[in-house]
Amino acid sequence: MCGIVADHGTNRSETGRRMLARIEHRGPDDVGCRQVAETWLGHTRLSIVDVAGGVQPLRDDAGTWMVGNGEIYNHVELRRRLGPHRFRTGSDNEAALHAVTAWGPEGLAELRGMFAIVVAGEDGSIVAARDPLGIKPLYWVRSDDRYLFASELRAFDPAVRVHVETFPPGHWWTPDRGLVRYADLTTDDEMFTDPAHAREAVRVVLDTAVRRRLMSDVGIGVFLSGGLDSSIVAALAAAAAAERGERLQSFATGLAGSADISAARRVAEHLKLDHHEVLFDADELVAAVPAVVDALESFEPSLVRSALPNFFLARLASQYAKVVLTGEGADELFAGYDYLRGIDDVNLADELLATVKGLHDLNLQRCDRLTMAHGLEARVPFLDLDVIAVAQRIPVAWKLPGELGQEKRLLREAFEGMVPDDVLWRRKQQFGDGSGAGAVLRARAAEVVEPDAPRAPDLPEPRSAEERAYQQLFSRTHAGFDPRTVLGRFATP
Length: 493
Fold this sequence. Notes:
Blueprint: E1 2-8, H1 14-21, E2 30-36, E3 39-45, E4 58-59, E5 64-72, H2 75-82, H3 94-103, E6 113-121, E7 126-130, E8 139-142, E9 147-150, E10 165-166, E11 171-174, E12 178-181, H4 195-212, E13 220-223, H5 228-243, E14 249-254, H6 259-271, E15 274-279, H7 282-296, H8 301-317, E16 323-325, H9 330-334, H10 345-357, H11 363-372, E17 377-379, H12 385-392, H13 396-399, H14 409-414, H15 421-424, H16 431-434, H17 437-444, H18 465-478, H19 483-487
Parallel strand pairs: 13-14, 13-16, 14-15, 16-17
Antiparallel strand pairs: 1-3, 1-9, 2-3, 4-5, 5-6, 6-7, 7-11, 8-9, 8-10, 11-12
Helix pairs in contact: 2-3, 4-5, 4-12, 7-8, 7-18, 8-11
């Protein structure tokens, strides 16, 4: 996990160096840069795979260079296909470089992982790309002769902020061909007709996805809220760790006595995890709001509420590990939200896919920013492409509440026996609510700004005093961005 910057269309490095300095928190282990023809590449590194040899920018023997953020989980397979003789390091990101140089930008479709990359050649060529879901962030500014790229909004100079756009997931770009979509999440595979077969497929594909994401040369753990999704991930990861004679670390946070803390302890004891937790009180929560809004790069209240416990959780986990697995994506794939109950089956399938496609500027943004603020990488096994494909083959009626009245029914049934029953059938709570943070923030968020301060300029009319407070905090450090870039799916058309 890292931060990247690229400035294409210049032989000067001043802009790129300023941008890279603003995201140095994303990579506390190393910084590297390179001028390649008229492209400046910058990289700040969190060392996870090939700690000693994977310094970026990476290069091939022909003088093509790359900076990348993320993980390529199938890099071992790609090394065999591309030829081991091409590779100069053990870095998984190097597989992305050679996939592009050997197969062209179309080779990006062969990558399995989360990534944002920029590849530049001494001949003046450049390719920028982002993974199919946008798990890893990438923003850009484009003009007739200058293109800027960066991992976070804060990287861009104030003078260009209004022009910053989200680089679309599942696309690559070159100057001559423009934006090209290389990935589509929609599958046309046949639907399951037997629930037992569907449950087995979910178990197998999710177990494989978790094992892929245990790839690391450094410490790894799991965020454990005590809810269904993180508990399933923890159970699968713990089993894989036990096969290697290891004990999985888990991390939990919340107010003392909160539902999440109690449930997480229950799961950790059941799975025999090496469990760590941090408790916060209401005053500590409110005091952290300015730092969280700054790190999150958003003022959307629902994101801020869930980001606050994420802040404490990531800070705790970073003391023990560099990589954590999370349960992000399960609600979107298996119909975990209450509002979905009122949608008919035909439209519900479309809505679920739309929510998955919109995660890159919602929950995935929160997940990325709050972990990277503490030099920690988050991995999301539920959003493996194979898991997404299997989930689309499950009739939506099987995901909806059954006799027990619980959402994500088939997912719960698939993991009976692996997770304690009281947790397996626990009713869903948003992270911000289960940790106890939501109630505190709704009541006290306005305390962090002056009550008579003017409304932040160029932002939508706040829907509550809570959102007004977050807007004012956001404007202190992030003024000037187009609200549509900041809000994503929440933005008004």
